[in-house]
Structures are given as structure tokens and as C-alpha cells.
Amino acid sequence: MFRRSVIMLLVVLMVFSFALPAFAQSTNTRGQSAAAFDQKIIRNLDVNRAMDHLYYLTKEIGTRPGGMPNEKLAADYIADYFESIGYEPWVQEFSIGNQHIGTITVHDGEQWFGQGEWGFNEWHGTVWETGAGSRGPYTSVSGYVVDCGSGGVNEWPAEVEGNIALVQRGTAFTTLVSRAQNAGATGLLIYSVVGSRGQYGQTFSPNVTTSIPVLGLALSQGMWLKEMMEEFPVYLDIETQLYSNLISQNVIAIKPAAIENAPIVVIGGHYDSVVGAPGANDNGSGVVILMELARVLKEYDTDEYELRFAVWGSEERGLVGANRYVQWLSTEDRNRHVANYNLDMVATSEYERAPTLFLETVDGLPNIVTDTSLAAVSRLGYTNVVQSRFGSSDHVPFHNAGIPATMFIWLGGAGTPQNYTIERYYHTPQDTIEENICVDRLDMVMKIAGAAVFDLVRKQVPAFEKAAIVYREYSPAELELQQDPNPVQ
Ligand code: BES
Ligand code: ZN
């Protein structure tokens, strides 16, 4: 009896031990490829969350010039968010040069309802930010705005006496200032013309000695004033202010590795804007993607790498934040940096002038960032993505320190400094969600960057396990285990 049951048990065990591999090697194979890993990340990335951040940064806060209070508000918002998703953000402060800012308050601006050529409806308010003369005075005056053309000798009407002159930029600032003062103007507004890149002119700080306040307006601000003046007299309060002893900051969320001296991957983008521009595309777009990547990648095993999600301050003031970061690294830490993904202007809706997503390296050569990103592009089935050569952003200091670095940006032409086109709203008050953001493009770049980074940093499956995976069929119980153990809420 006992003997028979032992034999039976042995038989049963033998049958099962042969049957199991046969079951496992059925024809329906199921390999876990890089494409499957892409989906782990992509299905959790939520473009609506990214857009919520973009609303906050560009509408609740607005313009974010380096060193100004709004830049700090944005840094706090991003740091708080990093904290809320379980990081301990590291804030790196640095000092930054003075800002000269003008403020224009348009009285009765609400009377103006038209939809002009300049697309103001979406962004107009009664208070605008402009540049101000960098050599004083810092004061405020009020008056009617008077159109003085391009400020030629005979273009100053009598009404300008005691009021505010508006001129188009072109003539030397000193000449314009002395003519305005001679005509009795109490303030001078100079508005930009179309820039060399075909973009609408941005705000600026005229470097000129003057006794009356001088403001440097974006082209669209000047044009809006002119359109309003055709309807009714426009009365303004203008103010010029000097901001000094400024502090700017980088905010960095670190996902540590499980091993010591792990290679470091930096996913970065600047969160400041130029004066007067809400910076929705430049560069709210890059910032909100990396905030979302920080949330999703946190849930995955990337233990062989250290990930750093970094937003840079004062990029528009000369790549200052990214430069400081790289300068502050010890030689050992710098040598651990293996890749910098720099997201800058990744969602413009001006398709004609920016039809292509460029992966820009400083020397035009491919690197680990372009390689992983282009591989992700082809796995995901995107087409209009190419590699080219461009600097002008936060990947430059990384490149100069010998760290492979690439900027993601939508442009036209060859995507080089010699041959490119860019959206007209670049650096203007119309760089808003309404005028300059395409949600699908934001989503696309988020997916490419997410898939590329994860492909680089996910815990690598040893080769023999990979081989085993390719030839095995999974049991229902194993399939259950393969489901994402930590689906992100
Ligand atoms: N996002 C732009 C960079 C850019 C613009 C690259 C157009 C390619 C084409 C960036 O924020 C920027 O405006 N950079 C400055 C240079 C920086 C050193 C102040 C620029 O390009 O003028
Ligand atoms: Zn930028």
C-alpha cells in the first residue's frame, strides 16, 4: 500500500516534470521587448497632469524673469510638487544681475474688445510687464499715449507735451530720448520690431541715460496700444523699477541609485522666461514634462542609475542656472554624469514654422541621448524627428563639461543656427497656452523622453534571463505577476 502510493507519487512527479517544459515552450511566445517597457511608462504618463502644471506656471504665476519674485514662486511650486510625490528637492541658490522692469497699466483697457491681428484677446489684461531703461530713472508717471511713428525729427505732435510718447524701435535710443524730452514727453515707450529670426520683437531694456522713464515694449504690446488708440484715447500709468541683489535658483529632485557611484542621468529644462513672456512653450513645456516624468519614473526600478530631475533658473540670462550646477559638481560627480536630456520649447502649435522635432547636440554628433531618443521614436512610430546641431540652451554647459547632452526643440529648416525657423511668438507676450501650445506635441515629446530615459536606466535583465523569457510561454499565474506591480495612481 505504502509502496504503491510512493510509486504513484513518483509517477505523478515525473509526468509533471516533463509536461511543464512542454507547456512552457508552446508556439505562442511572449517576449518582453523594449517596446513593452515603453508601455509601462507611457501608459502612466498623463498629459493632463502636465497641462495642469502649465496652467499654474503660466496663468497663476505668469512671466518668470530670472531673479524676480515670480521666478521664485515657480521654483516653490515645482519644489512643493517634487516633495508631494516623495522627493526631497534640493534648491541651489545663486545671485543674478539686476533687472530693469517696466509696468504699464492700461486705463479702460477693458473697453477694447476687438480681435486684432495680434491675437490679444487671450492674453490682454490691464497690466503689462516690459523692459525698462537700464540707466534710470526709476519712477512712475501717467498720461495719454501719443503715437510718434518711428521718432523722426518731425514725428512728435504737440500733444506729446505732458504725455507719453510711443515710438517704433530703430533710431538710436539716445536720439529718441533727447527728442522725446525736447517735445516735453513725460515718458517714452519704444516697441520692438520683427526680430532676425522672424519672431515678433520681444521686450528689452534700453541702455540709455535718460531723465524720463523709458520702457522697451514687445512688438505686440506696441501694436495693441496703436490699435486701441484708433478707437479711443488711451490713458496709461507707467512705472520703471530697478531690481537688484537678486537671487535665482535651480530645483533638483534626485532618485537615488541602489549602488554606489552609479552613473547619473539629468533630465532638465529651464523654468524662467524672458521679461513680458508667460513662457508657455519657452519653457513651461519642458518643465511640465519633466515634472510628470519625475512622478512616473519614481515608481520603477532604475536602481543602476541615479536620476536627477532639474529645473534651471535664469537660463534666459545666459544659461546661468545650468552653468552654476555644472560648475559646482566635484570632479568625481561630474564624471558620473552620463547623459543630459534638455527639454526646451517642446510643444509649439505653430506647425508651419516649427514642423520638426530636433534633437540638438552642440557638436552635431550623435550621443547616448540622441541614440536612446531616436530608438524610442522608431519604436513608438513617430516620424518627424531628426538630429541636428544647435546650442543656445542648458545642454551647452553639460556638453562643455564633457557630458553627452541634447536639446529637444521644435523648429523648421535644418535646425542649425545658420538655417532654422521658429514660432513667431517665441519670447513674446503671446507665448501662452492658447496661442502657442499643442497638447499632442507635448504628449509626444513626453512619451519619447520617457521611453528613451527608461530604456537607458531601467534595471537591465541579464542576458540569460532575457533568452529564457523569449522562449517561454507564461502561465496565467505568471502573467498576473507580470502586471505592473506599482501602477501609478
Ligand atoms: N529656448 C531658447 C533656445 C533656442 C531658441 C534654441 C531658438 C534654438 C532656437 C532659449 O531659451 C533661449 O532663448 N536662449 C537664448 C540664449 C541664451 C544664452 C540667453 C537665445 O537663443 O537667444
Ligand atoms: Zn528656452
Sum up the structure in keywords.
alpha/beta, nine-stranded mixed sheet, single chain, binds ligand BES, binds zinc ion, 489 residues, seven-stranded mixed beta barrel, 36% helix
Can you give a write-up of this model?
The chain has helices at 2-24, 34-42, 47-61, 69-84, 173-182, 219-231, 280-297, 320-328, 331-336, 368-380, 395-400, 433-436, 439-457, 463-471, 476-482; strands spanning 90-96, 99-106, 127-132, 140-147, 164-168, 187-191, 214-217, 235-243, 246-255, 264-270, 306-312, 337-343, 356-361, 385-389, 405-416, 419-421. The model is unreliable at 12-32 and 464-472 (pLDDT under 50). The chain contains 15 helices and 16 strands. The strands form 2 sheets. Strands 1, 9, 10, 11, 12, 13, 14, 15 and 16 form a 9-stranded mixed sheet that branches. The chain has a 7-stranded mixed β-barrel with strand order 2-3-7-6-5-4-8. The chain has 489 residues and is of the alpha/beta class. Bound molecules: ligand BES and zinc ion (ZN). Residues 282-283, 315-316, 318-319, 344-345, 390, 392-393, 409, 422 line the site of ligand BES.
